[in-house]
Amino acid sequence: MPDVSPRAVTVAGFGCRRGCSEQALRALLEQTLQAHGVPLAALDALASIEAKRDEPGLLALALGLGLPLVFFSAEQLARFESSLTRRSSIALRETGCAGVAEACALAQASALGDGPATLLIEKYSSAEASVALACSLAEPT
Questions:
Q1: Are 46 and 71 in contact (CB under 8 A)?
Q2: In Å, how far are 3, 5, 12, 103, 134 from 46, measured between CA atoms?
Q3: SS3 letters across the chain
Q4: CB neighbours (10 Å) of residue 70?
Q5: Is the dihedral of CA 104, 105, 110, 113 positive or negative?
Q6: CB burial readout 88-111, b (16+ within 10 A) else e
Q7: pTM for this predicted structure
Q8: CA 12 to each of CA 5, 32, 62: distance values in angstroms, whole numbers, following the listed order
Q9: Distance CA 117, CA 22 (A)
Q10: 26-56, pLDDT tens digit by residue?
Q11: How many Å apart are CA 75 and CA 112, to the nearest integer?
Q12: Which of 42, 85, 103, 132 is surrounded by the fewest CB atoms within 10 Å?
């Protein structure tokens, strides 16, 4: 009998400083997941803002994890602003988006899922980057 239960689509959204290394991003991701008991294997995708499309650390992280990395414009992320747990005036000034990691996670989880996305893990930050997790239910395939 096929599995007919819904499953969650889980996405990690990232914001980072220019030149942030793959190692710094991976360490932040793994620490955040471990703190919340979420296995790395639960991730379906990574997401960030369009301005980070050429960031070597993000690209290497996605490649190393074997996950798709999707980018969103500030305009696309604006619809998720009301769901952010914190708004950053610095992020808004630098990117045009009040919260990159959470908004990106929510945007991609919404795109992949069949229902509204919710934050699973609020933004965690290091000196170089931030990460947040969002999920959405998906119909079984």
A1: no
A2: 26, 24, 5, 12, 10
A3: CCCCCCEEEEEEEEEECCCCCHHHHHHHHHHHHHHCCCCHHHCCEEEEEHHHCCCHHHHHHHHHHCCCEEEECHHHHHHHHHHCCCCCHHHHHHHCCCCHHHHHHHHHHHHHCCCCCEEEEEEEECCCEEEEEEEEEECCC
A4: 17
A5: positive
A6: beebeeebbbbbbbbbbbbbbbbb
A7: 0.88
A8: 23, 10, 11
A9: 27
A10: 999 999 999 999 999 999 999 999 999 999 9
A11: 19
A12: 85
Tokens of 10: 């889980």
With a pLDDT cut of 70, the percent of the chain lying above it is: 87
Please tell me the total number of residues recorded for the chain in this structure. Answer: 141
Beta-bridge partner residues of 80: none
Query: Across residues 2-17, what is the average pLDDT?
Result: 78
CB–CB of 15/57 below 8 Å?
A: no
Q: How far is CA 114 from the centre of its chain?
A: 17
Report CA-CA distances (Å) from 42 to 10, 11, 23, 92, 134. 6, 9, 20, 30, 11
